[in-house]
Structure formats: C-alpha cells, structure tokens
Amino acid sequence: MSRPAVSPPESSSSRDIRTDVACSNGAKVSSMSETRQHRCVHVRPDEHGDWTVQSDQSDNAASVHADAGAAARSAGRYARTCGAELVVVHDRYTNLHVTVVGE
C-alpha cells in the first residue's frame, strides 16, 4: 500500500534528518543514545481534515491550513521566526517527518 508524501518546508537551508530526537516539551520523536532537547514546530492533522501548525512552546495553533504542504511550508517559516530547530510533520498514518531548520 503506497502512502501519500507529505511535503517538507520549501527551503534550501532545511534538510531531512534521520537522527532520533526529543522536543523540548518532552514529546519524543524517537529514542536516541544521546538525548538532546530541541525546540520544535509541529504540523498535525485535525479531525476536520485541516492541518495545524503549533510550537511545542505554545498551547495554541499558530496557523491552520487546508493541505499538509501549505502547513509544512508555513511551519518552516514560523520555526525560523520563533527560533525552533526542527519541524515535525505528523502525517495521517502516524509517521513523523523531521526537518532541520536553518542549517
């Protein structure tokens, strides 16, 4: 069964990483031997079919989008302005797509 791709933020300074990380709010992206805390911006689908962008430092959504690609691009811009290091896209299949911001 093929899964639809979730577009990462469009930026020449971002790259996909394969490293396991933990976000500063305690959300575990995956396990790793050397634990590092990162400020993260998350993109999550909601029950209405929209995609929300939210910092792990806030309880409120920064923005809501009709599609995952627009939300991921917005999350990349938001991450750069709020000083987050990672964008974590949670797709509808519970997969995580982690992108380093500003490298």
Which helices and strands, and how do they pair?
Layout: E1 15-16, E2 22-23, E3 37-38, E4 40-45, E5 51-55, E6 63-65, H1 68-82, E7 86-90, E8 96-100
Parallel strand pairs: 2-3, 4-7
Antiparallel strand pairs: 1-8, 4-5, 5-6, 7-8
Mind explaining what this structure looks like?
The chain is built from one helix and eight strands. By secondary structure, the chain is an alpha/beta fold. The chain has one domain. It has one helix at 68-82, and strands spanning 15-16, 22-23, 37-38, 40-45, 51-55, 63-65, 86-90, 96-100. A six-stranded mixed β-sheet has the order 1-8-7-4-5-6, with helices on one face. Strands 2-3 form a two-stranded parallel sheet.
- Helix percentage: 10-25%
Mean pLDDT: 77
Count every helix, treating DSSP H or I runs of 4 or more residues as helices.
1
Proportion of residues in extended strands: 25-35%
Number of strands: 8
Which strand order does the major sheet show? 1-8-7-4-5-6
- H/E element sequence: EEEEEEHEE
How does the helix and strand content classify structurally?
alpha/beta
Oligomeric grouping of the chains: single chain
